[in-house]
Amino acid sequence: MELLGYFNYWVFAVVLVIGFYAVIAKGNLIKKLLGLAIFQSAVFLMYITMDKIEGGTAPIIKEGVEGQLYSNPLPQVLILTAIVVGVSMTAMGLALVVRIKEAYGSIEESVILEEDHSS
Amino acid sequence: MIVVVFGVFLLTMLVVTAVAVVRTENLFVAVMLMSIFSLLMAANFFILDAADVALTEAAIGAGITTVIFLGALALTAQSEQAAVSPKGRFAALAVVTVLAMVMIWATFDKPRLGDPDAPVHQHVAPWYLEQTPELIGIPNVVTAVLGTFRGYDTLGEVFVVFAACIGVLFVLSAGGIRDRSKEADAESIGLKHHLIPKVVGRLLVPFIVLFGLYVQFHGEYGPGGGFQAGAIIATGVILYALLEGETNALRALPRRVLLGMVVGGALLYTLVGVAGILLGGNFLDYSVLASNPVVGQQIGIILIEAGVGITVCGSLLSIFHAFAAREAS
Questions:
Q1: Whose CB has fewer CB within 10 Å in chain B, the N or C terminal residue?
Q2: How many other CB atoms sit within 10 Å of the CB of residue B304?
């Protein structure tokens, strides 16, 4: 039970490296971006894990309720905006991938590098 | 206890889904699994008492991101080729295994989940929770921190979304855009010939947009706000575009209007900040907007949330149309 308190952080570490693996070991550019999205989600999970407080609830204050604990609003605000920025960055990356496909005819890293070296 | 079991189950599913996303060679399957991954993540956020973040992740991670990925897939490739040599794969596996070990070892120095004495709960957070009812007078502390206490930060994020949208439009608008007038008939059909999606989808669109507006204007009292509302309304319009064809969606909301939304929302946010200076306060200081500082804060939050919602909605729709208008090479 004591160790279960760390379970969220272990999942964070495992999901983070799964995303990182996709970024470094996969040749397909869309797969790399999916890996990056997983990596980023893992970071979100770590932040949101930190906001939890035992016996607390979502930080929406109800009038007339005394002594209620609320989870930490600050990590939530940071991650809320980060999710929206994340999708914008993913869209930007995908736009570049689309143009790379048009220029090279492929989105595999090996093919792109070969064409770069041969020209 | 039951919440702990549920949480462990969801987190395990999260790891399984992430592995599946990386392992599958079919990119369409990978993108759909990524949508499930986001939904599981949203459920996790909800268990961890972060209702606002869960709503955002569900609307954006599971909804909009999937649509944008599918739009890019249609223009690129459906499956990946196994490119990296087995040797390279083992090296990468070794690196990530060591990295995971180090990070798991480091977690033993972190406070347990939900520990009330954790450093993160000691500094500004109690102040936000205590002062929000008094200074701002709205129940949702997340909206209060987002809108006023960290208003500069949110303004910056809005401009990042704005810049990313402009960037996507620049990258994708050069050459290769489909000539709509010639093939308009074939393209504008959308899903019209699929009866069930059409009937069910058409029923859903107005309710999705209505729910988006509710999330926008109820953001001070419950989970919600501009970021979520913008994404939800954009989802409704994208569903309409899928059902009725892109041409009809662009007739309802032309590109010029969308660009105006992207610019106008960011401008509205900035102008509220400047109005604070002109009325004798600081930049983004809303308490001078009305004679009563608390009312001023509330007016400021409603205005900037509207700005955020307009920019996010306009940006996501512009990005969607930019991908949809591109011709597959």
A1: N
A2: 28
